[in-house]
Amino acid sequence: MGGALAVLAGLLEGKGVASVEETSNVLGIYAVITGETAPDEGLILACWAGILRDAAQEKTKKERGAEKMGVGSGSAAVLVVEDEPLVRTMAADILMDAGYRVFEACEAADALAILDGRDDIGAVFTDIEMPGMTGLALAAAVRDRWPSMPVLVTSGRVRPGAGELPNGAAYIAKPYMPGELVATLGKMLPPPDSGD
Fold it and tell me: Is pTM, for the whole model, over 0.85?
């Protein structure tokens, strides 16, 4: 994590860094530290950490999520749209642990392509700040094309103002607790099947 500490030191010493991101992988623990400075806003730091899993462990986790739902159970899936891989994986894991089927996209264009190709997605959970089309623009596009689909947006830095969210969309601030995410989506979707 020495590189991350160097980045933090540089930011805190006021070296004029406008935006920086540092990743580190030490002993299987993956950390992402982002820092951004802006006039009159000060320093914004975010840190995400998790344990890296090998492909076999990841497959087992995803299969377990599918088994909980039961193939062909008819329950709606959640599309998680997040450009930060670690954050996207964490959200997907939370929702799979709660019994939802999950699809993932790293940007809005991919999310729209997935939505175009599937009819079993029941809600979209999207970050606001992403390269290209923002999560707010994605939420508006989803509302225009799939008016009854619930959309939940999230951000650690941007809080939508009045009128910025499409009708029926909701907002949850990062960092969110797993129970908070599941409860908020639970109000928007029918509960997942128990698989019994």
Answer: no
| Cα dihedral 163/111/124/95 (nearest 10) | -140
Segment holding 96, helix H or strand E: helix 85-97
Query: CA end-to-end span of the chain, whole Å?
Result: 45
How far apart are the C-alpha atoms of 116 and 107, rounded to whole Å?
15
Question: By the 8 A CB rule, do 155 and 128 touch?
Answer: yes
Q: What is the largest CA-CA distance in the chain?
A: 58
User: Quick check: helix, strand or coil at residue 169?
Assistant: coil
List CB contacts of 115: < 8 A, sequence separation 6 or more: 79, 121, 124, 142, 145, 146, 149
CA distances from 104 to 42, 75, 110 (A): 33, 17, 9
Least confident of 55-59, 81-85, 118-122, 184-188: 55-59
Q: Hunting for tokens 């009159």 — which residue is that? A: 40
